[in-house]
Amino acid sequence: MPKLSEEYFDLVRQAVREDKQAPKRKKRRLPRYESKAVPEEAKIVINLDSDSSDKEKDNRQIAEDSQDNFSQDDDEDYDSDDFEDISDLENSEQPANEDVSVTLDAKLADSRPKSKSKNMISNDERKFRKFYHMFHLLTFMVHGSVRNKWLNDPKLHAKLSKLVPDSVFELLHPKKDDELPLRSTRKLLDGLKKCMEIWQKHFKQITRVETRGLYMIDWDELDGPWEQPARYMSQKLFNKKVTHGRGSLEVASQGFVAMLRACGVNARLVFNAQPPDFTNNRASNPQGAKAPNEYLADPGAKSLPRRRKKPVSKKKDEDTERYSIFWCEVWDKISKKWITVDPMGQRIIEQIRHHTALEPRGKARQSNIFRYVIAYDRKEGCRDVTRRYTTHFNSKTRKRRVTKYPEGEEWFQKVLRRLQGRKRTRTDDMEDMYFKQRDENEGIPDNMQDLKGHPHYVLENDVKWNEVLKANCKECGFIRTKNNSASLKVYHRKDLLVLKTARSWYTEGRILKPGAKALKITKSREFRTGEATEERLYPFDETDLFVAQPLGPNDEVPTNVYGNIDIYVSSMIPAGACLIESHVAVKAASFLRIEFAKAVTGFKFEKKRVAKPQITGIVTAQRYREAVEAMIDGIEYANEEDKRQECELESLRHWNLLLAKLRIKQRLITDHGLVRDARMNSAWGGSDAVNVADDAGETSVLDDANDDDSDMGFEAGGFVPDASGFVPETAARESDAESAGMQAGGFELEAENSENSYQDSTLSEPAQSSSAKEADDQLEDYEAFMKDLEKEESQAESSTHTDSDFNYESE
């Protein structure tokens, strides 16, 4: 921004004089603002002084700084009537040469109304809650599978089967009544009722719930603390509780399933999993506290903030325990249906047609709702039976499940297949038909909110920009608005056609038919230029399968204008060609000098939505496939070998540095004597000084100095450096005998003391000869090692090459 000229300030002064002569208008009272904590950068000082050139220079600098804080758009938002006229400042009794200071609060810089902050979570927190919901659900499903396996324990069956008398056992296995099959079903229901009574008498001592963690908790309760922490439950302890008839409601329900299986009944354990609600987007953390995902991402952070958990009322406990999260299902071979039995919660037996009495109501829904109802059978089967226990599954329940997303549905089905321990049976097929019938009987939702994202129905106004209704399709229903002023049509979702552009169809391996007619035209903007353009959308019926051109006479691969070939699906590969994907495929084909083309298999969108093609391999003739793959293996092996050699050379350099340090250390010990670590510490920062020679003329080496010297000699390889290279330790000591008087840091010692000290610190004569021999051997080994090291380094430098240096000519 250019600096303000002096003429600008002359115009300001002239305007002030004109305003002074103009008639006064009624002054409006300014609102009172607090200016106690006005930052320095928010203060603007305007000096109206024509005599001082230095002040004008400062004014220009201040004016430039003020432009960074206040934009022109902000200035236009202010109303001139809200401020006092500047002429009033001139009419005051201030001298003309004094400075006039105007202070603006930074809080008033933007007077535009701001939207109220919503108590909503961020996108990162939303992703974390979805991830935690899936993780929590997975642990629940694995927990139910483990408990289901415990219920098949033969030892437990042998003890529980004794509780059921023979009369009740016969009722559990009724014979088929051909005249009236309902009689057989009735006998089974009577047998289940008697078993439930037997189990309630057996399980007399009911303790608390196994753990509150099995029930749904709020997001601000993840950090606890729990009033009753969960106790580790082993299979041995579980069998003991079930056999003696004492434990939690969950253990009691699971034990009832084990008793029925002990009697040969096809009974399933049903678990109503309660992970936290990921659709709850309200911020629940206290102000200033970290979100749970921040603590997971930061290992060094402190533990989660502890909050005082409100005591749960006794009535709320009773409401929660009234509705079980574990119950039982029994297969009726006569009616080909599953019978629901809740032995501990509602204590009912029902054949569900529309509604179920097991669905929680009232305050119990805060910690127990129907979203994931998983059933485990005696053959370790695992199935999702939520559809049986929910009336509005598609319109309400599905929105609370992770399966409303395509990737969530795929993940959930993968978990079910992983926990499935048996093959599919006819019972599963009949149950799937029942679930399909329940879907059809659910009908159209009675409000617009439930129609949003419905899997079977769509509102006329909710048709997307790339969708269109089929020609001559009829509505399946109507829905009225709130004021009943109009009716909106409802269509089946199967009557919708998904439209795509010609480019989008091409990425799926399809091209437009000759004379294809677009069913819809939409307006869009070009990413680079920003100009409005029109895009034509076509349905699937207006496209044909893309057939690539065949290879040329010399195996030439047909390419586009950029010299590449588009391979988005396998059907786009030319006949007689193959796609080889590798990051070195282009290099391998270039070495072999064969015909090929780079394959573009997708696009990557970068900043400003610029599409960058992704080349992941090549397309070449099928007969070259083995040769290219062999070359790729060779190049990858050569790259790995180069990395290994670089790592080895780096290791040798580190060893060389270590040996040099050890030689320096050995030379210091030879010249100045050995110093213990404790004395070295005192020499650096302690109060006691280290003296090489004491008052008695003996060195300060301790009694075990010989051991330390021998250790250091071994550690240093037995060599000390000199000007020419490395010589044995004994030779170094002989060469340094002349300078024995210059020890202890350069101070000359007395001849007698230095001689005694040297004799005390040296080894005996046989030891010197043996150490000299060992030193000679180590010197030869070290010289050979250094020669090998120099040779390997020279070979590594000569082996360094570029891609064009490869030559595969025969020797």
UniProtKB/TrEMBL annotation:
What InterPro entries does the record point to? Answer: BHD_2 (IPR018327), DNA_repair_Rad4 (IPR004583), Papain-like_cys_pep_sf (IPR038765), Rad4/PNGase_transGLS-fold (IPR018325), Rad4_beta-hairpin_dom1 (IPR018326), Rad4_beta-hairpin_dom3 (IPR018328), Rad4_BHD3_sf (IPR042488), Transglutaminase-like_sf (IPR036985)
- Listed Acidic residues bias regions: 65-91
Bias class Polar residues marks the residues at 278-287, 754-772
Q: Where is it mostly found?
A: nucleus
Query: Which GO cellular component terms, listed alphabetically, does the Swiss-Prot or TrEMBL entry include?
Result: cytoplasm; nucleotide-excision repair factor 2 complex; XPC complex
Q: Where is this region: Disordered?
A: 17-120, 278-315, 719-811
Subcellular location per UniProt equals: Nucleus
Q: Which PANTHER family match?
A: DNA REPAIR PROTEIN COMPLEMENTING XP-C CELLS, DNA REPAIR PROTEIN XP-C / RAD4
Can you name this protein? LAME_0G09626g1_1
| Taxonomic placement | Eukaryota, Fungi, Dikarya, Ascomycota, Saccharomycotina
